[in-house]
Specification:
The chain has about 280 residues and is an alpha/beta fold. Helices cover about 30% and strands about 25% of the residues.
Length: about 280
């Protein structure tokens, strides 16, 4: 069954630098690449490369038709990716020699998705399908309500983190994926620990320290595979896309997390975002 993903589509403009610049510092880049990115696009590609069907719901601007074509080439359905006037989403990424990054985002077309069309799009969904979304588009609550009206399980990646955006979504979610910093920010904003959230399953990614699953059975910790990172950009998106695909395919949560960790661990050994997300047989 397919996964329905309301998500961003960005042009990733990656500047490799000797170190992340300090305020006011002018720094010469050592290399530059343009690639397909955006948390939504990354997750759609990850779902497809994990072996599941995925429908991407989003928008690109007049400068973004190449991104729509590339998504399609990676096996993602783009029937519901609108083409709008104005710029597409853009991400300017500074990547240092240690694989750490700093990112500036322009929402562009991602913030102008037609929320009134979501009900019609999701009318094509069937029982057993999954849905997923992130915080890089408009229409989050509209999408959550439309998904739950059809009885589909719903996963949310709470990034980029915004407490005001996440809080009203919690009651609609079946799965919430956050990193360690986002989990701390959400607890500070809501006063609720991950175990107290009204969400059946909460998965917290811990980078090199692994992942933590908080569910009905309590907490379970997962150790991360040991690798030497080259670029951490997109690793969390790869993890989430693989996790949702694995759950859609019928794996239990523990096995799904283990598979997602393997995918993220391979991802950090590569330079790039959506274009270099690993295929399942590479894991």
């Amino acid at each position: 069954m397919p996964v329905w993903n309301l998500g961003s589509v960005n042009a990733d403009l990656v500047f490799q630098v000797p170190h992340l610049p300090a305020p006011g510092e002018t720094l010469a880049a050592t290399d530059f690449k343009r690639g397909l990115g955006g948390k939504g696009a990354n997750m759609s590609v990850a779902v497809a490369r994990a072996g599941s069907s995925v429908h991407h719901i989003g928008a690109v601007g007049e400068d973004g038709l190449w991104m729509k074509e590339r998504l399609s080439g990676y096996g993602v359905s783009v029937d519901h990716v609108a083409e709008l006037a104005g710029p597409s989403g853009q991400a300017v990424i500074e990547l240092d020699a240690e694989g750490e990054n700093r990112i500036i985002i322009l929402s562009g077309a991602n913030a102008r998705i037609d929320v009134f069309g979501l009900d019609e799009i999701l009318s094509e969904a069937q029982p057993g399908d999954w849905a997923i979304f992130q915080n890089e588009t408009n229409g989050l609550l509209d999408f959550a309500r439309a998904v739950k009206a059809r009885g589909l399980p719903l996963a949310h990646a709470a990034a980029p983190f915004d407490a005001e955006a996440v809080a009203p979504l919690l009651e609609h979610l079946d799965l919430l994926v956050m990193n360690e910093v986002e989990a701390a920010q959400l607890e500070a904003a809501t006063g609720m620990t991950p175990a107290a959230l009204p969400v059946a399953d909460v998965v917290i990614t811990l980078g090199a320290k692994g992942a933590l699953w908080v569910g009905a059975g309590g907490e379970q910790r997962f150790e991360a595979p040991k690798v030497t990172p080259v670029d951490t950009t997109g690793a969390g998106d790869t993890f989430t896309g693989y996790l949702v695909a694995a759950l859609e395919q019928g794996l239990d949560m523990a096995d799904a997390i283990t598979l997602a960790q393997k995918a993220a661990s391979v991802m950090v050994t590569r330079l790039g975002t959506a274009d270099v997300i690993p295929l399942r047989d590479e894991l």
